[in-house]
Structure formats: C-alpha cells, structure tokens
Amino acid sequence: MTIAPTPPDSAIQSRKADHLRICLDDQVQCKEVTTGLEHYRFTHCCLPELDAQNIQLGTTFLGKPLQTPLLISSMTGGTEIARTINTRLARVAQAHGLAMGVGSQRIAVEQPQLSDTFSVRSFAPDIPLFANLGAVQLNYGYGLAECQQAVDLLEADALILHINPLQECVQSRGDTNFQGLFAKIADLCAYLPVPVIAKEVGNGISVAIATQLLEAGVTAIDVAGAGGTSWAKVEGERAEDLRQRRLGQTFSDWGIPTADCLTSIRQVHPTLPLIASGGLRNGLDVAKAIALGADLAGMAYPFLKAAHDSEAAVHALVEILMAELQTVLLCTGNATLADLQQSDCLQQLPL
Questions:
Q1: 104 annotated as a binding-site residue
Q2: Residue 141, domain CATH
Q3: Of 82, 140, 202, 292, which has fewest CB within 10 angstroms of its CB?
Q4: 49 known ligand binder
C-alpha cells in the first residue's frame, strides 16, 4: 500500500503543536490513579561504609553504555519549537550519557521537509538514540520500508513502536484498527536490522501482552504505566466534539500503574531489557523503579518542562536527578545499581 503524502499544513502538524502546548499543562496529569511507587519505601542505612564520590551510576542498555540509567522518553518533533526542544535534549543527553527517544516520526515519513526537527544525531553522536513510530500504522500502509526510514533518519540504535489504543479512541479521527498487529510486528522484528522496543504511552503493558510481544520478536519493553501524563486527557482537551471530550474525561485515569506493570513483568521475565516510565518525577522514583527491576527509567514531562525553558534548565534537572539517585544509593548502602537491585532494601508498605 502506498502512503499518500500529507499536505504541508497538515492536521498531524497541528496535532503535534497542540500536544506540546497541552502537555506543559499540569491539568493533564493523572489525578486519581498513581504510579504505585508510593507504596514502596527504602530502608535507611545510617552507616553505609561508602564514600559517595565512589558510587557508580553507570549501566548498559541493549549493549550501549550509559553514565546513568535515565531515558529521555519520546516526546516531540515536526514543529519549530519541537526542533529546539529536541536539540536541547540531545545536547544534554550527550553531555551526561543518557539515552533518548524522539516523538512519533510519522510526520517526518509523510513530510520529509520536517525530518530535520527530529535529526539530532549530530548533537548526540555517542548516546543510544531511539526512533519512534506508532504500531497501529502497520495497519494503515506502513511496513518495513517506513520503519527503516525512521531509523535511518535518526541513525537510531533501536525503533520504539508505541502502542496507544486508548489515545486513538479519544483522538478525533484516530486510527483504531489494532487487529492483526502481533503478526505484523513479528514480520517487522524479523527483518528490521535494529532492535524493536514496544512502548505504551501512559496506560501500561500487562505481563500477558508483554509475553506476546516478546514471542513476536520484540527485544525490550517500556511499560509506560499509568500515573503520569494522561493522553486521554490530552486528546480530550483538543477534541472537536462532545463525544470525544466525554471519552477523554471518562478514561482520564485509565490504566495499569507503573509499579504494577514493572513488578509483574519482571517476575515472569527476569532477563528482559525493561524500561520503567509513566509518572516518574524525581531520582527517588528512578531508584525505586531500578530496585523493582527496571534497567532504565524514562521521563518525559519533567524533561519537556525543562527543555521548554532552556538547555541550562535541562542540565540542572539531570544533575538533580543524578544527585537524588546517588543519595538513595548511599543511604541504602549500595555502591552500584546492580547492588541496589540485588539488595532487599526496598520494602512494600502494608496496604
């Protein structure tokens, strides 16, 4: 199937701009459902026998070294402000050795003149960089060629396939045919020369679906659980009719909490490369996610707010996150992230 080029003043470009504007508003954060991380607490070690200066935050993901287990989660592209934000994020990711994903590149596939709003490899030559397309587009004309185009544009180390049925249901004129996608994902994984990461967008991935995705050939999972930005709320805010606005309100707190996704998947798949995202807001959240079995911790909203301000604000945010994570390691008596995961210092609070 041939994909028709999108007109220059496209609905998709307008949607990208709306998403950025709305996501900067705290009102689209989940209010009733939480990440579940608040149900866990570290046991304090008052005499850790460690020098904080010797604590190591380094790790690897998909064979790529990182200075700290942080992923700048997929956010944006396709507009001028998105170009500025992606450039700022990429420069900071390079400076601090973070991984980074970009927003959906569908607009770049269909409007190549906007591809440079995503092209950040020149600013971040050494970091793990993840391309991004919606899995549902495999039912709307996309295939190996388009996925390879997204990867090539970014010189990416992996392709994120984001999975977002609720968002598409609430979105005006959303793409809602998710039938037969496991088989198409399996075909893509068999032929794409880089790993495929399956990612939700804030409603979580259950252990059953994670297992099916792994059987289809997906290399890693980003749980992207509930508790952070609600894309039902986001799409409800920009809805064009009462029906879509009502859907956004009804399903604003829908999903599986991030901690529940993480613990259930890790229990069944102990060696799966696993990313925890969805509502993580500080280094303590990152530490809890790592202790529960995540290999990386992804954040979007905090980085978006900082990058919208300035590159200096992004640098400051990363330094704070690293200091918070280092403090957790010192005050639990763990010198490395591996030590943290192997210890029993994180306890679930009684319900």
A1: yes
A2: 3.20.20.70
A3: 140
A4: no
